[in-house]
Amino acid sequence: MSTKRKTAQQAPEGEPRETVMKKITIDVVTRIEGHAKVSIYLNSEGRVDSAQLHVTQVRGFEKFVEGRPFYEMPGITARICGICPVSHLLASVKACDAIMAVEIPETAVLLRELLHCGQFVQSHALSFFHLSSPDLLLGFDSDPAARNVLGVIEKHPALALDGVALRKFGQQVIEGLAAERIHPSWTVPGGVNAPLSSEVRDRILSELPKAKAITARTLEFYKGVVDQFKEEIESFGTAPTMYAGLVDAGGGFQLYDGRLRFRGADGAVVTDQVRPRDYATYIGEAALANSYLKAPYFKPAGYPDGAYRVGPLARLNAADSMGTPEAQKQFEEYHQRFGTVVQSAFHYHYARLVEATWALERIGMLLEDPRILDTRVRARAGVNSLEGVGMIEAPRGTLIHHYKVNEQGAIVWANLIVATGHNNLAMNRSVEQVAKRFVDGNKLEEGMLNRVQAVVRAYDPCLSCSTHAAGQIPLRVQLFAADGTMVDELVTR
Amino acid sequence: MPRKVRLATIWLDGCSGCHMSILDMDEAIVAVAKKIDLVYGPLVDAQKFPDFVDVTLVEGAVSSQEDMEKIQIVRQRSKLVVALGDCAVTSNVPSMRNSIPVKKLLERVYVEGADATPGVPTEGVPKLLKRALPIQEIIKVDLHVPGCPPPASTIVFVLTELLEGRMPDLGSRIKFG
Questions:
Q1: Angle CA(A57)–CA(A62)–CA(A68) in degrees, nearest 5?
Q2: Is the ipTM of this complex over 0.90?
Q3: A365 closest CA partner among A113, A104, A106
Q4: For residues A246 and A106, what is the distance between their CA atoms, to the nearest angstrom?
Q5: Which of residues 277-316 of A touch B (CB under 8 A)?
Q6: Is residue A12 less than 8 Å (CB to CB) from chain B?
Q7: H helix intervals, A236-340
Q8: pTM above 0.95, yes or no
Q9: pLDDT tens figures, A419-430
Q10: Do B122 and A147 touch (CB under 8 A)?
């Protein structure tokens, strides 16, 4: 990714004529959570020269929250994303806890983590079953009119119903705790606003074995078919990058608390135990001329060399162990099969299922902890610090909320770094790699373009989140000749 | 057997929470799936908004030049347009930016908020409108379903009524916020 490529796109007139021959644009990347398009640049032989993912929406949360009382931030920032509102709620209340300078009651910590696990289950189910399984079950080259979740319901009803049931289980955990499935107001600065009842605990516990069984058979099914996608695995974003994810003090897998670790492609830990408040020492943000999604980078390595990835693939690379028995077993098998550091973005799918296994085990552990029913769940305080940072692992990766307030508690400055942003540089590299492997500019076929979209889908980008600044994800493919005239076009809105 | 109802969903400036609320109908989706052809939306692969659609559910406010073009295409090609959720109905949270000049908003994010290659994106990205607008300011809307998001049970009710050929009377099913 390089400056060279950037130059080619930003100032094609400055490049020798023969290097940028044609441009293909995929206008709507479908079955992803947001709005995006892809441009593919061809050389004179019709081979792919470079590719670029554009995120086409921006909303400006960081600016328009200025002046709002800090305790409104969870409710406002949840509206960044309806898929993982719980992530924003939790990162936000953690930043608010820091502004209040309180340590929240231990039961509140357990309850927030429980809510978070429910969200991991529903969000990972959505990504795997509703958005990606059509490619895996019906085929990348299958009829696009039926290549969707309704097509899966028709052709593979058992698996589709498993997906619906698993997502429902996760949503029911959220609903049981927080009263609403989407944008609940239960998490508050200082804790949560109501304790857990024993009825809800027992109800979730009674449904848990069914959810575990679904995840176990889906994982077995996936392990059986993954080898069929050898070609995709080899070319789906295998360019080496660093990986980032939260870990506990012993290097174990963490989603709600923990500190940030960066691990290199060679397996060596580059930086470890970064506290939330120190994130800006390690993470910088670059603006891109052709996308509303900024590109965070690892500051010590500079831009654009400091590309790193987050999310399921990255977390399983960053952590040394899982901490629950079944997930640990799956973690070991996964690494045995694909290496200590798993590079292909295709394996986001596999990693997602290992994480769902972990989340379900963790839900059981939390519910069986006797402290979970304690009724002291909220600390109350005013403004005791003018700055606060909240950092958690959202389903798609590390999420950071950073607020500054005045003495009255009004927001004077806010910065949000979302999971999909961290992956921006790597996603662009992956899109380019897949385009080079599968797209032949002389003969455009739908299946080729679907693979380009599928690699984007593997990252499970949440463009809703990423465009909290402003944004959207669709695909159009346009071919441009060297003189700038459009020679071919495949689809627009 | 009667023709299946051609349903489209579209996501403008919103958070996708209304689409998630559609999925929150859980198993009820199987029964609905039998009666509809989902011809466009974030859950399916169609790249082009079809020429003829019976019902389009619209999530989100109209916030960019692209949203503006899309919502007009939706109106031209849909028999019924449903504003699904508070962003489509009132422009809700996206409208919180309306008092801030677009230039200031974008500079905060892409100039002050970037420590490498700062600059407001201009290539291959749609221009923001001055204000995020409810869709009824641009097109005629046949049904408003408020809520942030509207509950799944309300969405099931709306779809079921429409599939039966009736205009839903939301009554007590309306949720505010």
A1: 130
A2: yes
A3: A113
A4: 20
A5: 284-292, 294, 297, 302-303
A6: no
A7: 279-282, 312-318, 325-338
A8: no
A9: 888 888 888 888
A10: no
